[in-house]
UniProtKB/TrEMBL annotation:
Residues 177-252 form the PIH1D1/2/3 CS-like domain. Signal peptide: none annotated. It comes from Chelydra serpentina (Snapping turtle). Belongs to the PIH1 family. Residues 3-100 form the PIH1 N-terminal domain. This is PIH1 domain-containing protein 2. GO terms for biological process: box C/D snoRNP assembly; rRNA processing. The lineage of its organism: Eukaryota, Metazoa, Chordata, Craniata, Vertebrata. Pfam families: PIH1, PIH1_CS. The gene is PIH1D2. InterPro entries: PIH1/Kintoun_subfamily, PIH1_N, PIH1D1/2/3_CS-like.
Length: 252
């Protein structure tokens, strides 16, 4: 078909995407926009899809990962009203495009689509049953007629990660502490929160390469870190008198 072109799907882990509460709940995801890219060599489309790390642990089991990939195909088809071939291969490179582009895509993704009638959701266990029943030679995710007519969803899309209008970016200072040999040891981030009276008002989220400090309806600071850090060993203290939050992040 002359209208066919390649679609690259960046499947990534993101701790800020919640895990399914149980096998009876749909799988949450965060999706960026479907983008068309034209370069000298080819014309292709690209989309970024983020799942909770526990969901992508399935890649250790090829059958489980195949189920998730085909489920992702169905989400893209329904959300963007396009038809996909369900023949795919895992690319040798780990990311299509730049990491910066992918982060911007996911943080400013499309409007949220919440599935309110959870009782009508197809569960993870039911999904596996349907997929096992299908003929892999056809490699489709078409559900049987009674399921399709009830508009059952396998996945729910979470809200985008955009900053709320009410929040402002607080003043901050980021420094890298080094040892005698100039080797980076830790990152220290001081955030000024003058309108905060208690640490209980602060919400802190840290990954290996970024940090988010949020005080709902007051402040929100989101930074990409210059070095990869050990989020498990990170500490944070709040000076109530000065209204300053100090975050210490050991560098990996």
């Amino acid at each position: 078909d002359p209208n066919e072109k390649s679609l690259f799907i960046n499947l990534c882990r993101w701790k800020r995407v919640p895990a399914p509460k149980s096998p009876t709940d749909p799988i949450p995801l965060s999706a960026g926009p479907l983008e068309e890219v034209s370069d000298k060599a080819e014309l292709y489309s690209i989309i970024d899809i983020a799942y909770n790390p526990t969901v992508l642990q399935r890649e250790e089991n090829q059958a489980e990962m195949d189920h998730l990939i085909r489920l992702t195909f169905k989400y893209i088809e329904e959300h963007y009203n396009i038809s996909l071939s369900h023949s795919y291969h895992i690319a040798t490179f780990t990311l299509k495009g730049s990491l910066k582009r992918m982060k911007e895509s996911l943080r400013g993704g499309p409007a949220p689509l919440f599935n309110k009638n959870i009782r009508n959701e197809l569960t993870v266990d039911q999904m596996k049953h349907h997929l096992r029943e299908e003929d892999h030679s056809n490699a489709t995710l078409l559900l049987n007629k009674d399921v399709t007519q009830s508009k059952v969803h396998l996945i729910e899309e979470i809200a985008s990660m955009e900053l709320p209008e009410e929040a402002i970016i607080p003043a901050y200072e980021l420094t890298i502490a080094k040892d005698a040999n100039r080797k980076p040891l830790k990152i220290e981030l001081k955030v000024e929160l003058p309108k905060v009276s208690s640490v209980s008002e602060c919400e802190l989220s840290i990954s290996r390469d970024d940090v988010i400090v949020e005080v709902p309806e007051k402040y929100k600071l989101q930074l990409d870190l210059p070095e990869l850090v050990n989020e498990e060993a990170t500490t944070a203290t709040f000076n109530k008198g000065k209204g300053v939050l100090l975050i210490t992040m050991p560098i990996l």
